[in-house]
Amino acid sequence: MPILVAPQAVLRQKTRLVRPEDMSELRTTIPRMFSAMYQAPGIGLAAPQVGLGLRFAIVDVSDRDEGRNPIVLINPEVIAETDSMAAREEGCLSLPNQYAEVIRPEAVRVRYQDMEGKRHELEADGLLATCLQHEIDHLEGILFVDHLSTLKRNMIMRRLAKEQRQKH
Prior knowledge:
Layout: H1 23-39, E1 44-46, E2 56-59, E3 71-81, E4 85-92, E5 95-105, E6 107-113, E7 119-125, H2 126-139, H3 150-167
Antiparallel strand pairs: 1-2, 2-3, 3-6, 4-5, 6-7
C-alpha cells in the first residue's frame, strides 16, 4: 500500500466521519495500513496518507522488540489537552526524511471508536500524545510543518520537493 507524499492534495483535505457502511472497507484497509506503517517504519498513519478521505488513523508507539500495541482510532477527537506544552522532534511518512521540533500540548485525552464501534477515551502524554495529535491533525488536512514558522516550513517543503525530484 503506497503512502502518499506531500504535496498530494488529499493530504490537505478535511476528512469525513466514518459511517457504519464504511466499516467493511476499513476491515480490509486497516491491516494493509499497519503493514505499510511497520514497513516504512513509522508509528502512526492516517487515512489521507493512503488516499482516503475518512476520519480514521492507526498508531503504535511500542518498542518493536517488546511486541506491538496497535491502536485503531475511528472518528477520533481531542476532548482535553494540558496547558503545559512540550517540544518533540516530529517526522512524517508523507514528508520522508524531513524532521523538525514541534511544540504541542504535553498531554491529551482523545475520544474515538474501535472497529466494533465501541467508544473509548485514551489519556496520553509523551510520545503517544504527540503521535495522536499528529495523526488527528492529518484528519483535518494539517501537516506537522504547519506548526512551524513560514520560513522553516518553506525550507522543509523545498528540500522535500528537491529530494523527490532527485528520486524520479
